[in-house]
Amino acid sequence: MNALLLSKYNHLEIANLPVPVPEPVDVLVQVAACGICGSDVHGYDGTSGRRIPPLVMGHEAAGIVAAIGSEVSGFAVGDRVTFDSTVYCGVCTFCRKGEVNLCDDRQVVGVSCGDYSRAGAFAEYVAVPARIVYKLPESLAFAEAAMLEAVSVALHAVAVSKLEGKETALIIGAGMIGLLTLQAAHAAGCSRVFVADIDTTRLKSASELGADKTLLASGEALTQEILQLTAGRGVDVVFEAVGRNETVTTAIDCVRKGGTVTLIGNISAQVDLPLQKVVSRQIRLQGSCASCGEYPEAMKLMSAGRIRVGPLITAVAPLSDGPAWFDRLHSGEPNLMKVVLDPRMGSGQVHE
Ligand SMILES: NC(=O)c1ccc[n+]([C@@H]2O[C@H](COP(=O)([O-])OP(=O)(O)OC[C@H]3O[C@@H](n4cnc5c(N)ncnc54)[C@H](O)[C@@H]3O)[C@@H](O)[C@H]2O)c1
Ligand SMILES: [Zn+2]
Ligand SMILES: [Zn+2]
After folding, report:
1. Whole-model pTM over 0.90
2. 132 and 88 in contact (C-beta within 8 Å)?
3. Which ligand lies nearest the alpha carbon of 35?
4. CB within 8 A of 331, min separation 6: which ones?
5. How far is the CA of 279 from the centre of ligand 2 (A)?
6. CB 26 within 8 A of CB 69
7. In angstroms, rounded to a whole number, what is the distance separating the alpha carbons of residues 51 and 118?
């Protein structure tokens, strides 16, 4: 099969690799869409240490069942499916509680990090355990389905924030994750959702996707705007979707006393904590990692048009264009959102 192989750092090539042989618990998926994730781009040049070559990356995928392992039930050849990026063990304490994103033996599809190496979906075929596979509704195109992983991340961030409805919310960072969290917050019943970024193009997308107000500001200026918008009180919940020192501090400044700051962004490994503000204003800092069980809800909300991903897809391209797209994303070219690769393109097999 054709696969996009990271043969060494900063170098992707189309390689001819054997089609994976599914284990008894696996489903073999013919890939019809696989999104390029920010983490793939950070892995590509070696900075994250989580894409050690040689590796086929890609974990945001959808496709068609091509074969099933001997122990698999509930799936048949030809089913349209997607799968979670997290391969959980199913037996550890966390998995037994349903917290599969915290699995002690957690692996991620398309990651190679020293502890393990698992081939991903920038290839014509990928094998994954059936327990992470979901059937797709007809209403979702494959390219949209490749966004389910990111949508689930946003839904999980909202879920761990334990909202009751009618909250005022601020999203800091209108990237892929922030723009999906905006929609997830509305779907969860937030009354007003403000979105802040330092990039006007991103804020334009936020407006189109329903932001009640967009704010081209950061730091102290953003805090002042938020205080004005909330009669000096601060918002009920802040979703931090950047992950830098400044934005985490601002998130804490913008939340009301007793409010929640949900931390999704994690570009920086470490940030300063304004400890006394957090303690004396009794703020809840809530981390959010990946997702656990949000895929069905994500499919429902996307099918109903309540979470829209179309405007976030920059391009759908054949696997052979993968190296060029990785270069463009890696160089930080502005206004690129999700790029989805379809390994069937160019092979005459494309159909939804
Ligand atoms: N917790 C999780 O499970 C999870 C999953 C996926 C991504 N992430 C993290 O979420 C973060 C966002 O991911 P993304 O894919 O949306 O990235 P992205 O690059 O698409 O978006 C980041 C946005 O932050 C904006 N930004 C940068 N500095 C800012 C500032 N000072 N103030 C306001 N906005 C600022 C940028 O303009 C951009 O729009 C990253 O840190 C990523 O690692 C976390
Ligand atoms: Zn991803
Ligand atoms: Zn586990």
Report:
1. yes
2. yes
3. 2
4. none
5. 33
6. yes
7. 10
Place of tokens 């990111």: 150
- Residues having CB closer than 6 A to ligand 1 are 38, 153, 172-178, 196-199, 202, 218, 241-244, 246-247, 264-267, 288-290
pLDDT in tens, 334-347: 989 999 999 999 76
- CA separation for the pair 184, 15 (Å, rounded): 39
pLDDT in tens, 77-116: 999 999 999 999 999 999 999 999 999 999 999 999 999 9
CA dist., res. 185 & res. 165, Å (int): 9
Contact present, 44 and 57 (Cβ < 8 Å) = yes
Conformation bin of residue 334: beta by default, left when phi > 0, alpha when psi is -120 to 50: beta
Strands 60-68 and 80-83: antiparallel
Q: Which atom of ligand 1 is nearest to the CA of 177?
A: 16
Please state, as a whole number, how many other Cβ atoms lie within 10 Å of the Cβ of residue 290: 18
pLDDT digits (tens, 9 = 90+) for 132-176: 999 999 999 999 999 999 999 999 999 999 999 999 999 999 999
Task: Report the chain's mean pLDDT, rounded to a whole number.
Answer: 96
Tell me, in angstroms, the distance from the centre of ligand 3 to residue 69's CA. Answer: 21
